[in-house]
Design goal:
Strand content: 15-25%
Number of domains: 4
Helix content: 25-40%
CATH architecture of the largest domain: 3-Layer(aba) Sandwich
Largest sheet: 7 strands, mixed
Structural class: alpha/beta
CATH superfamily of the largest domain: Pyruvate-ferredoxin oxidoreductase, PFOR, domain III
Radius of gyration: 27 Å
Number of strands: 24
Shape: globular
Strand order of the largest sheet: 13-10-14-15-17-16-22
Distance between the termini: 24 Å
C-alpha cells in the first residue's frame, strides 16, 4: 500500500503533555534558535521535556533534525513515534512524512504545492505559507530565511498550546541588546501564531498544560556542566585540541575562568589603574599528543589539570597515558564519545570508547572510568574525577557522549558544598620530608597501595627521577623481573582499591523480577522507560546502571543473581558486557546484548523490541 492509499486520518485520543515533535530542516539555515525556543518555553511551563539535535558534520546544506519529546511522567528519552512533523527540507520530505504517526500531523510550507505522491491518507497536512509570509513582512533576504524558522515556531506555539507570553519573554531575553532583531523575531512569532489560530483548530488533539515538575530543575547540556565541574573542582590548567563533540567543554571552561579565575591587582601608584591577574592556564596545543603531555606536566607539578577530547584524541594520547599510569601522575581526561572508528561520524553519538579507555596504552594498564548519565552527573563526576586522580595518582577518564554533551537536558539543579575540600592525596610537604630519613617515590604504600609523592619546589630530599622505563620501588632503573613485577603488581592492586571510591552503581529491584537489565551512561532514560513497558507486558526486570570502573562486587553479584541479564549499550562489540566479563569472571554467555550503534540516541522501543525478540515473546 502506498502512502497515499492509506486510510483517512483516525482521530487520535486527546492527550495532554504526552507527544513528540520532529522538526526537519537544512543545516545552516538558523533553525537551532527556533527549536531551542520551543524547548525552553515548554521547560518554563513546568513540563518534562527533552530536545535532541541530530545534525550533520558539515557546515551547511545537509539534512538536520531536532526532536522534542514531552511527557508528564518524565519519559523523555528519544521517541520514534512522532505526533507532529515539521517538514522544512524538500530533500527529506518523503522520509519525514513517512515517520509521522497515523492520525498525526505534518506542518509544511504551502508557499509551494506539496507533491501529491507525498500525501498520506492517514495524516493531517497543515499548510502554512512560511516563505510567502516572510516575503511580505521582511525586507532582507537573509532575514527572510531566518525568520521563517520563528514563524513556524509561532505556529507550533499555537498548535500545541505553548504559552505565547513565555515564548515572547524568551525572545525578549535573548535579544535584549538588539532592538532590531527583537522586533523581527517578535513579529515573526506572532505572524506564525496568528496564522495557525486563524486557519486551524488550535490546539491540536495533543496539547500542553502548565505543570510544576521543573521547579527544582535546570535546562543544561553536559559540556557546560562538565566545565562547571572542572571549575568547582579547582582545575587551573587545561590543554586541548579542538574536536567535535568535546570542544564546548573547553570553550565553556575558558569563559568561566575568565570570569571567576581572575584576581584584581591594585597598583601602588594611585595614578596607575588596577590590572587583573589570571590564575589559570589554558593552552590550545598543536595536537592531542601535545595536549596530554602538557596536562601530565602540570599534574606532576601539583596543579589540577585536564584535557577534553573524543575517541580519535584518546587514540593519539595512548602512549602518554601509559606513561602517566606507570609513573603515577594524576590527570583527568573528559571523553565526549562519538561514532568511530577513524573519523567516523563526528556529530553522532556512541559509547565506543569503553574498552579503549579502560586499558589505554600498550602493556598492562588499567584506568579509572566514570560514566555520567546526564549533565547533572557530568558536573558531579568531573569533581570526583580530580579527587580520584590525585588520591590514586593516576589518569581518570570521565566518559560522556555527544547526546549528553551537546543536547539540553532537564536535570536537578546543581548544588555545591562550600565546605568542600579537594582530596589532594598523599603529597609530602617540607615538614613531612624533614621527618623522614630518605624519600623513595614508589615505596611506603598505604592500605590502598598508594605511595607518597612530592611536587616541584619541595625540599631537595623530595627530588626523584621520573622514568617511563622499567623501575623498581625506589625509582631506580631496573630490568630485574622481580623488581619490575613488584611495581606493576602494586599498580594493579591500587586500581582495584579504587572500586569503593568510584560512583556506585544505581540498582532498582522489583518484586518477582525474572531478568536483570544492565546499562551505562546516556542509555539510562530509555532503559528505565523500557523496563516499565516490559513490566506492563509481563516481563519484570531488575535494573542496574554502572557508573564507575573498577567494578564493585555488586556488579558481579547482580549478574550472578539473575538467570538471564541483558546489557544495553551503544556500540557494536558489546564493550560493557566484555569489560564486566573480563573483570568479574562472569561468563559473557550469561549476558545477552542489546546494542544500538547507528549514531542516534537510544529509544525505549529499541530496548523493548530487542529483549522481547531474544526472549521469543511475541
Amino acid at each position: 500500500m502506498t502512502a497515499k492509499e492509506r486510510s483517512a486520518p483516525s482521530e487520535r485520543p486527546r492527550r495532554v503533555n504526552d507527544f513528540a515533535i520532529k522538526l526537519a530542516n537544512v543545516n545552516g539555515t538558523g533553525s537551532a534558535s527556533a527549536n531551542s525556543l520551543l524547548v525552553q518555553a515548554i521547560f518554563r511551563m513546568g513540563v518534562p521535556v527533552s530536545g535532541k539535535n541530530l545534525f550533520p558534520s558539515n557546515i551547511q546544506g545537509l539534512p538536520t533534525w531536532y526532536e522534542i519529546r514531552v511527557n508528564a511522567s518524565g519519559y523523555t528519552a528519544r521517541a520514534l513515534d512522532y505526533d507532529l512533523v515539521v517538514a522544512m527540507n524538500a530533500q527529506t520530505y518523503a522520509a519525514d512524512i513517512n515517520e509521522t504517526a497515523s492520525g498525526g500531523y505534518v506542518l509544511y510550507d504551502s508557499s509551494w504545492p506539496l507533491d501529491p505522491d507525498l500525501e498520506r491518507g492517514d495524516v493531517n497536512f497543515l499548510g502554512v505559507p512560511l516563505a510567502t509570509i516572510c516575503l511580505e513582512n521582511f525586507a532582507k533576504p537573509r532575514e527572510r530565511i531566518l525568520m521563517k524558522n520563528i514563524v513556524y515556531a509561532g505556529a507550533i506555539v499555537a498548535l500545541t498550546g505553548i504559552d505565547l507570553a513565555i515564548a515572547s519573554t524568551l525572545l525578549a531575553e535573548t535579544f535584549s541588546r538588539n532592538a532590531s532583531l527583537l522586533d523581527s523575531n517578535q513579529r515573526a512569532l506572532r505572524l506564525g501564531y496568528d496564522y495557525a489560530t486563524e486557519h486551524f483548530d488550535c490546539p491540536l488533539a495533543f496539547r500542553l498544560e502548565a505543570m510544576n515538575e521543573n521547579a527544582d530543575s535546570i535546562l543544561i547540556d553536559g559540556n557546560t556542566a562538565a566545565a562547571l565541574g572542572c571549575l568547582y573542582a579547582g582545575a587551573t590548567v587545561a590543554a586541548w585540541y579542538p574536536i567535535t563533540p568535546a570542544t564546548a567543554v573547553m570553550d565553556n571552561f575558558t569563559r568561566l575562568c575568565a570570569k571567576y579565575r581572575r584576581v584584581k591587582v591594585e597598583s601602588d601608584d594611585p595614578s596607575t589603574p588596577a590590572t587583573y591577574q589570571n590564575n589559570y592556564l589554558i593552552i590550545q596545543a598543536e595536537d592531542e599528543i601535545a595536549s596530554i603531555g602538557m596536562v601530565l606536566g602540570a599534574g606532576w607539578s601539583g596543579a589540577r589539570a585536564f584535557t577534553s577530547t573524543s575517541g580519535p584524541g584518546i587514540s593519539l594520547m595512548s602512549e602518554l597515558l601509559g606513561l602517566a599510569y606507570y609513573t603515577e601522575i594524576p590527570a583527568v581526561v573528559i571523553d565526549v564519545q562519538r561514532v568511530g572508528p577513524s573519523t567516523g561520524m563526528p556529530t553522532r553519538t556512541q559509547q565506543g570508547d569503553i574498552l579503549m579507555c579502560a586499558y589505554a596504552s600498550h602493556g598492562d594498564t588499567k584506568h579509572i572510568l566514570l560514566f555520567p548519565a546526564n549533565p547533572h552527573e557530568c558536573f558531579e563526576f568531573a569533581v570526583a574525577s580530580f579527587d580520584l586522580a590525585e588520591r590514586f595518582q593516576t589518569p581518570v577518564f570521565m566518559l560522556s557522549d555527544l547526546d549528553i554533551g551537546m543536547n539540553d537536558w532537564v536535570v536537578p539543579s546543581l548544588t555545591w558544598d562550600d565546605e568542600f575540600v579537594p582530596d589532594r592525596g598523599r603529597v609530602l610537604n617540607d615538614t613531612h620530608l624533614a621527618e623522614i630519613k630518605e624519600f623513595f617515590r614508589y615505596t611506603n604504600e598505604d592500605e590502598e597501595y598508594v605511595t607518597p609523592r612530592t611536587v616541584p619546589g619541595s625540599h631537595e630530599k623530595g627530588a626523584y627521577f621520573v622514568r617511563g622505563s622499567g623501575h623498581d620501588k625506589f625509582g631506580r632503573y631496573t630490568e630485574i623481573p622481580d623488581h619490575y613485577q613488584e611495581v606493576i603488581d602494586r599498580l594493579k592492586l591500587k586500581h582495584a582499591a579504587a572500586a569503593p571510591h568510584v560512583p556506585a552503581p544505581v540498582v532498582r529491584r522489583r518484586a518477582n523480577a525474572t531478568i536483570g537489565v544492565i546499562t551505562v551512561g546516556s542509555c539510562d532514560l530509555a532503559v528505565r522507560e523500557a523496563i516499565d513497558e516490559l513490566a506492563e507486558r509481563g516481563v519484570v526486570a531488575d535494573f542496574m546502571r554502572v557508573r564507575g570502573f573498577p567494578f564493585v562486587e555488586d556488579v558481579r553479584k547482580f549478574v550472578e543473581g539473575h538467570d538471564r541479564c541483558f546489557v544495553v549499550e551503544q556500540n557494536r562489540d558489546a564493550q560493557l558486557r566484555s569489560l564486566i566479563s573480563i573483570e568479574t569472571g562472569v561468563a559473557s554467555e550469561t549476558m545477552n546484548s542489546v546494542l544500538a550503534y547507528g549514531g542516534f540516541p537510544l529509544s525505549a522501543k529499541q530496548v523493548v523490541d530487542s529483549v522481547l525478540t531474544q526472549m521469543e515473546i511475541p
